[in-house]
Specification:
By secondary structure, the protein is α+β, with helices and mostly antiparallel strands. Among the domains are: about 55 residues, no CATH class; about 180 residues, no CATH class. The protein is about 40% helix and about 10% strand. It has 14 helices and ten strands. The strands form three sheets. The chain has a five-stranded mixed beta sheet with strand order 1-2-9-8-10, with no helix packed on it. It has a three-stranded antiparallel beta sheet with strand order 3-5-4. α5 runs antiparallel to α10, α10 runs parallel beside α12 and α11 packs antiparallel against α12. The longest helix has 18 residues. The chain is globular and about 60 Å long. The protein starts with a helix and ends in a 21-residue tail after the last helix.
């Protein structure tokens, strides 16, 4: 982050709770608000792993529901003990227990408590960080926009946790980015101006930065990820317009940004970026600034393509999933130097990948 960015970054406001001595410190960016609208996308495109007890329960449930082969068994690459892992089977990206009207058949027949823990918990997320347990609502739920500000408050469920510990330098970068995104008068355009060193009062995006973003997109050729059947039909529907739109982008004639997003959508886009950074939802191999650039690119692409209040939030939620796939982000940011070139124009642009895109599902939500 530039010196200008650090100077303009106050501390992000956090909600903390540790009611019991020696209990883990619970931290959230804001109260957890979520409502389920039964869109079905939470049950599509993920690899949902099961414990042995969950596997046995799911097999019993499958008999009653007449679901064939509901559990897959595999060995994690690099596991010297060849320990088998179990995960729910999907059919064209959809969980085999998801009905045609996008309702969970386990939930409907046996009750919510009989679902695997990861299914009961999502979109609630818990990340073990160096400062405690970070809680939040995963912005990968395509209905997040409908309840993120005024939806009902939900209690955290601490069962499934990921662990991501950063060193001091990366922590400082992450805190600076979160603080910038948390400023009351912040906008996407102003955020871009600050991190790229442009005058912060600009309402249009810096031409050089936008041209580099589009150049990276054209070089990366991300279209296969927007068409992968394994993502699930309802997820693909929300990003089906992006491949054709990406083909129309020109680095020398970028679309205008000023006024593209309404204030409400701009605020939501920044909230999605905050959550991604705060809960460390991306690949731990990428530093916070690279994570921010990936998310920012998604905001621009989805906003340019269709800034409608229904289309934009759902497309951005689908992008949030894609950036967790190594094959996706490594084509867009193949090297550490690519992030610096993208942000500041220093160095050389990335080279075109010499292999086909490797499309895989993200791990469990």
């Amino acid at each position: 982050m530039s010196t200008t960015a650090r100077a303009l970054a106050p501390r992000a406001r956090l909600w903390c709770h540790a009611a019991v001595t020696n209990a883990p410190r619970l931290i959230a960016l804001r109260p957890l608000r979520h409502a389920c609208y039964q869109c079905g996308t939470c049950c599509q495109g993920w690899r949902v792993h099961l414990t042995e007890a969950e596997r046995e329960r799911v097999l019993r449930q499958a008999v009653e529901l007449e679901v064939v082969n509901p559990v897959l068994e595999h060995v994690v690459e690099g596991d010297d003990n060849n320990t088998p892992r179990f995960m729910l089977r999907t059919d064209k990206g959809r969980c085999v227990f998801l009905s045609e009207d996008n309702l969970c058949r386990i939930h409907g027949t046996f009750g919510a408590d009989e679902k695997p823990l990861v299914c009961r918990q999502f979109p609630r997320r818990v990340t073990q960080a160096e400062d405690g347990l970070r809680l939040g609502i995963d912005p990968a739920c395509t209905s997040t926009y409908r309840s993120w500000e005024n939806g009902p408050e939900v209690e955290p469920l601490l069962g499934m946790q990921s662990t991501v510990i950063l060193g001091p330098e990366l922590i400082a970068s992450e805190q600076g980015l979160l603080a910038l995104l948390s400023q009351p008068d912040m906008t996407i355009a102003r955020f871009v101006a600050i991190i790229t060193g442009a005058p912060p009062h600009l309402t249009e995006l810096p031409v050089g930065f936008v041209g580099r973003v589009i150049a990276c997109l054209r070089i990366a050729d991300l279209a296969p990820f927007f068409k992968d059947p394994g993502a699930g039909r309802d997820v693909l529907y929300r990003i089906s317009h992006l491949p054709e739109f990406l083909r129309t982008l020109s680095p020398t004639e970028p679309p205008p940004w000023q006024g593209r997003l309404t204030p409400a959508l701009d605020a939501f886009a920044r909230e999605v970026m905050r959550r991604h950074l705060f809960m460390r939802l991306g690949d731990p191999e990428l530093p916070p600034m690279a994570q921010a650039l990936l998310m920012l690119t998604g905001v621009l692409v989805c906003g340019w393509a269709d800034a409608n209040e229904e289309s934009f939030p759902e497309a951005l939620a689908a992008w949030v999933r894609l950036v967790r796939i190594r094959g996706f982000w490594s084509r867009y940011l193949p090297e550490t130097a690519t992030a610096r070139w993208l942000m500041l124009g220093d160095g050389e642009p990335p080279q075109a990948p010499d292999d086909a895109a490797e499309v895989t599902a993200p791990e469990e939500p």
